[in-house]
Amino acid sequence: MIDKIGEHYTQSMTNFNKAKDHSFAHALCNKYQLSHKSLCVIVDDVKASKTLFNELSLYLNPNEVYIFPESEVLPYDHFSTPQNIIKERFTILNRMKEKSIVITTTKNLYEKLPPISHFKSLSTFSENDQININDFLKILDSNNFKRKDKVEFTNEYAHRGGIVDVYTPIYKSPIRIEFFDTTIESIRFFDEKTQSSLSSIKTFNLSNGSLIPRNTPSIELFKSKWRKYFDKKDERDCTIFNKVSNGKETEGLEIYLPFFFETTQAFKDIFSEYEFLKTELTSSSHFEYINQRFNDEDIDISRPLINPKDLFFNDSEVNNFIENLPVFKIDNNYSDYSFDLKNLNTNLSKSLTNFNKVILLSNIASSINKLQEDSNIPLKELDGQLNDLNDGVYFAKHPRIRPLAFRNEILVVHIEPNIEKEIVNDAQETSETDIIDLNPFNKNDLVVHEKYGLGVYEGLEVVETNNVTNEYVKIRYIENENLYVPLRNINLLSKYHKSRLLTDIQLDSISSNKWTKKKEKALKQAHDHAAEILDIESRRARSSSPSLKVSDDDFNKFQVGIVSAGNEVTPCNVTGPELSLKAKIGVNGPDSAGLIFSTIAVSDGISMGHEGMRASLVSREVITDSVELVMHAERFDGMVTIAGCDKSLPGMLMAAARINRPAIFLYGGSSLPGSYKGKDISIVDVFEGIGAMEKGLISEDELYEIECAACPGQGSCAGMFTANTMASVGEAIGMSLPGTASLPAEDSRLRIEAEKTGKQLNYLLKNDIKPRDIMTIEAFKNAVTTVLALGGSTNAVLHLMAIAHEAKVDLTLDTFDQLGKSVPHIADMKPFGKYHMVDLDNIGGVPVVSKILLENNLIDGNCLTVTGKTVGENLENVEIPTNQDVVSFPNNPISEEGGIAILNGSLSPNGSVVKVAGIEIDTFKGPANVFESEQEALEALFNNQIKKGDVVVIRNEGPKGGPGMREMLQITAAIKGAGLGKDVLLITDGRFSGGTTGLCIGHVAPESVEEGPIALCQNGDQIELNLSKRELNLNVNEEEKVSRAKNYKLPEPRYTSGVLHKYSKLVKGADEGAVTG
Length: 1077
Fold this sequence. Notes:
Elements: H1 2-5, E1 8-11, H2 23-34, E2 39-43, H3 46-56, E3 65-67, H4 83-93, E4 101-105, E5 112-113, H5 116-119, E6 123-126, H6 133-142, E7 146-147, E8 156-160, E9 163-167, E10 175-180, E11 183-190, E12 197-201, E13 203-206, H7 216-229, H8 239-245, E14 265-266, H9 267-270, E15 275-278, H10 286-297, H11 308-311, H12 315-323, E16 330-335, H13 344-354, E17 357-362, H14 365-374, E18 380-381, E19 392-397, E20 404-406, E21 410-414, H15 419-427, E22 446-449, E23 453-465, E24 468-476, E25 482-486, E26 493-495, H16 514-544, E27 558-564, H17 576-587, E28 592-598, H18 604-607, H19 614-634, E29 638-643, H20 648-659, E30 663-667, E31 674-676, E32 679-681, H21 683-694, H22 700-710, H23 722-732, H24 748-766, H25 771-774, H26 777-790, H27 795-806, H28 813-820, H29 837-842, H30 846-855, H31 871-874, E33 900-903, E34 911-915, E35 923-931, H32 934-942, E36 951-954, H33 969-977, E37 985-988, E38 1000-1005, E39 1022-1026, E40 1031-1034, H34 1038-1047, H35 1058-1066
Parallel strand pairs: 2-4, 2-15, 3-4, 7-8, 17-19, 17-21, 18-19, 27-28, 27-29, 29-30, 35-36, 36-37, 37-38
Antiparallel strand pairs: 1-16, 5-14, 6-13, 8-9, 9-10, 10-11, 11-12, 20-21, 22-23, 22-26, 23-24, 24-25, 31-32, 33-34, 34-38, 35-39, 39-40
């Protein structure tokens, strides 16, 4: 029967792209099915890989043949490998244990890839596994997954309550894991677009989330290798270096891939267990192109490049590997058989006499339907493996492939018209000088070069320089000057669109600067024209509309002021303007019309440690006064207040209490923590780093890295410092919507809550619920209790007393002390603990803390809140998660007493404040080391004049004496950084940052300029602290004190004019909240 078929031919190494049939693919499948090993086939290009894949797919199952995709980015590109490519590579490399055929191109052989261990599945999780959800999230973070509000792409995860969504690259769809307590309750795939479930699974594997690892060890390795490789470069000039060091996302990291791994691997080594085969390959010179790209791109000092030899394998290495591969020989069992589609039934009958099985293929459904209608012979649908079929004629929908005639067994024909002709055309040889013209220009078109101006397009030419052949666009200029533009730079050219009114076109000259002058003149004209248009539009707008977008109907509604401290001065308040707009959307409606205004804010972080800090506490009063003035002048009926930094939060609440018109408060959100050497860090770590560097414990470079990493984005300081403490106060006292205090500044939920906050003000207006209806003595006690339970900032004492003063509520230091003895400290929060505000948010935020306190009868559930409901009603449906250690329970607290204590005694008869959260001692006694300012103390520390056992006394820093009662974060952090945090007691009439930890007592009253006992301290005096007794004593006899008092002279005031002078004349003591009214 074979004789009837026609002439046979033998194919040992036929040029794959030019072959007339798919005998190579068929023979390869036969070899694969007889072998126990996986195969890896190398082809010339992407087109060949897709052709071979389609042909192999006719014989193999989908999980038996893969294309290892090219990266789809140019060498030294500014873009990263697309996510779908990374996903395909991860999938293939995680299925290497399964027998398969992998198709790759020669270009992939040039890449230096991450080690195979990076791609492989790292861990397996199953239903009913026992794991804490927070531990699972840490695993995701360490494996380079990015947290998002909603999962849309690989390398992302999202967390909501007991649900974690994760999109790992080794699966086609993302996975949703539901936790019940510490148990994985269910696992299922879901659709990332609709968020609907697809199918349940029992087990899933977790791999690295990205091609480039972004965990702390990898970042540290990157920095180390970068510095060693580019030892002559200044890393501060390198944008990518700084972004990576700060944990920020950036494109194009692949150009530094070897820096993220101890070693890289070649493609051939990763697939070393595979048997390599090759089609007929052209000798590759891709490395020349890589070098060319390197020379083109190595021009930016902010982006130094790794030499090609260190990032890629060269032509010799790749070609030598390919040349040594065995030749895959194909026997002579294939023939050239003609099948005439015009006479379908005749040819089918004839083919069935020559072949046992005839397979007709089409990738068009209608063609298959017509085939079935026209055939006189019964056709069966191809279902399953082709080699397993019985004799007969089969049809299938399949991508276009070349035909096949194998012995007398199989005939495969694709029925698309002219397919054989197209394949022959594809196979025709082209000369080395043939050029595929894909550019948008036609010969003699007028074109404009960005640099040289107007010329005539002459076509494409092949030019050989330095033994390298490249394609160029030829442009003719005046006097037959020619410019050759590399085809890769065709983006520098654009078509010249001539006006019909122009009859004479003047070409430009390469050697003249006339084009530059014309371009500059045109640019100026364009600017002038744009200015005219803007002016016309501005005058048109002014003439046709009111100055504000307020309708006549709006004047019959409640008028609402929406105020924020939004500005670019502090990252804490960056969200203010955006949240104001969202709140305005919520306010505006049938009942109310909102107008936005703003107030000032001072950055404590920027003003810390110098004279600027004296303005910080003063700004609280200015914020309050400025909001009052606008509300008073504009006669607004109510207000939405939005604030982010330490003083703007209490300032807004003070204004609301003073004005006493319906009001609601929204926090601008906290920042996320930074990351340094695997540890979450924040601004406090920077100040501690300064002390550590001065003591030689870390280098200046390490301090710089800490500085760059500490504050990764917008929002207030990440720990339970002053801003987050006061945000918690706003919620606990009833002035904020539940759950808003812990939202990160970058979280989309905050924008939603801003709109809800605006809407809720309408309820308060209609029901005439005012701040003083909410901020009662019981509400203040709830707020104090919350601060104590959280281990919050000592500044809360000062601010709560100031807010109470405006609300006409009698809140004293005694209230703090009484509650402090009965309220346990239960939150393990920074600065002394492990967690940041985002971690509290992950378990449910402040409502979880409030629910714990309510269930233990530590707060009053009957207090009214801005929701119109009581605290208890707000908390009815709040669930307390047990599979977490952010917040403990009163029966097993961090400390039996709250995080803040009030001291009296001979050194602070009117009271002083100490943060006992994290303090392990009960008593301390030592000699006084007295300083007149924070700067003096810092200099002494850096000069080793502060010793273990000292009691450092810093005075003249109180509300009046400062003036402004500066925060002492710089000195306290420096003491801790120097390793003296547990061995030195610091006492001041100033105050401390919410980030302060250690043995620090502030708010000493009376202050020094009020001739309080602190003014009488001298070096060497014995000072004694007893926390149990709540005493701070100066062990100097009364006779000596009287003598010192007679000789005491008030220091000269630091300011004799301006706002600080005014403040010093008006402000009251710290024991009264340092208020000015």
